[in-house]
């Protein structure tokens, strides 16, 4: 996908703190929208994905005593220029802002850009301690997207989901959760999960699939920048991270009641719908 170079005055990025030690260690709850938390745990550290899918907590509340991260003084040029992956992510962030902000303005809904945080190992977030092993995620408490770009190498090597569009899909999916936060969908889902815990996972799946569709909408609205092979890269990535596929690859039985992100077929379906329609109204996964 041929994205334009980002405008440093039109994106919010920071370099988060880094920490050593085993990347799966530490404490704290993780905010909603961790795209590939199960991938890293299951394929890198041998963790049972079914167990993780059933126990990962999602929260929009800031933890007691947890400080919301503050952007560092380093400018976007320096932060985004650290490596090719961070530059790519910043280009995607700028494009996502340019695509979504006008839609919010047209709908008279207040818009705030998310803060993209690059980190290595671990860092603090408004939702608790972020760990590289958790994969990229969105924290609604501080409206931040968090990513260790080393994840992209694991995405390619261990899941066979390489290519720039697969990486853009990761950022665009997390941005989709930001859209849900701004429109109030995320808050409505959390309230519904509290009222009906038995439907918590099913509601989470619907929210994740909508974020997949929103990722596709961004690509569809920028169709003039799509290149041959992009669709295939996106479908490969979506298929690789379906709950059923992750469970099978880990040698476990498929447990639909433990799904939190949807099957491979569902993720491909909603990403494709977003790309082909370029219409956010086509992303109603709740009805």
TrEMBL record:
It is found in: Membrane. Its main location: membrane. Residues 1-23 are annotated as: Disordered. One of its GO terms (cellular component) is membrane. Keywords: Membrane, Transmembrane, Transmembrane helix. It is a single-pass membrane protein. It comes from the Bacteria. InterPro entries: Uncharacterised_pept_Zn_put. Transmembrane segments: none annotated. This is Neutral zinc metallopeptidase. It comes from Novosphingobium aureum.
């Amino acid at each position: 996908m041929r994205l334009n170079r980002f405008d440093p005055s039109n994106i919010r990025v920071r370099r988060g703190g880094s920490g050593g030690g085993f990347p799966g260690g530490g404490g704290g709850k993780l905010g909603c929208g961790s795209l590939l938390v199960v991938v890293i745990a299951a394929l890198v550290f041998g963790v049972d994905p079914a167990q993780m899918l059933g126990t990962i907590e999602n929260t929009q509340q800031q933890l007691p005593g947890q400080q919301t991260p503050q952007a560092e003084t380093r400018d976007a040029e320096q932060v985004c220029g650290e490596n090719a992956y961070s530059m790519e992510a910043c280009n995607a962030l700028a494009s996502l802002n340019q695509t979504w902000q006008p839609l919010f303005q047209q709908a008279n809904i207040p818009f705030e850009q998310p803060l993209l945080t690059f980190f290595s190992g671990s860092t603090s977030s408004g939702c608790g301690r972020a760990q590289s092993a958790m994969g990229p995620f969105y924290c609604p408490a501080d409206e931040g997207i968090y990513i260790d770009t080393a994840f992209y190498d694991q995405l390619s090597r261990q899941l066979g989901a390489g290519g720039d569009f697969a990486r853009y899909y990761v950022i665009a999916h997390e941005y989709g959760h930001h859209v849900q936060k701004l429109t109030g969908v995320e808050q409505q889902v959390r309230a519904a999960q509290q009222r009906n815990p038995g439907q918590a996972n099913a509601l989470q799946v619907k929210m994740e699939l909508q974020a997949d569709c929103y990722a596709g909408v961004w690509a569809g609205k920028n169709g003039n920048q799509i290149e041959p092979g992009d669709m295939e890269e996106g479908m490969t990535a979506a298929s690789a991270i379906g709950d059923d596929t992750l469970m099978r690859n880990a040698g476990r039985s498929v447990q639909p009641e433990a799904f939190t992100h949807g099957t491979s077929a569902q993720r491909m379906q909603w990403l494709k719908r977003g790309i082909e329609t370029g219409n956010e109204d086509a992303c109603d996964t709740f009805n």
